[in-house]
Amino acid sequence: MNGQAALLEGKPIQNRFERIKQTLLGSPVWLCPERALLVTEFFKKFDKPKEPMVIRKAKALRHLLRNKTVRIYDDELIVGNPGTKRKSAILQPELASVFMCEELLWMDRRKTTPLSISLPDRFKLLVTVIPYWLLRNMSYRAFAGRRLHLMRYVREQRYCQMLWMERIHWSCLSSRHL
Question: DSSP letters along 141-165, please?
């Protein structure tokens, strides 16, 4: 390999990997409200409930992609992030994350997987996203007519002890299942 091929903008390639690794390891994980806010905005302002759900979701994705913040970080050759910070966790309020939003008040102080989030972002989620999705999210709709099962599901999600992945399926087991 000649000298020019081993350099990326004057920086040795092997150091690029180390810089990215150190940046990622030294950064906290942030809870990013952007996706939740944009999806909520779409469904509040532009949704047409008479259209098929697949079309509505496609239009929501188009709205999200047209309005999402794009950041390109130093040393990246392949770019893209789910959130606005380098290490971000996202909320999907249309699915089930609304039930876990009570933790917004102390999310950055949790023992397991603390997530940083600013006070203005917490406020936006509490005022805009949660009230809209509380009775519209997938979990609530899936348990329609079976509220006791819904309450059990919510409790199990809140006190999740272990996650396992089997192909694409994620399962959350409460301590009473172990």
Answer: HHTTT-HHHHHHHHHHHHT--EEEE
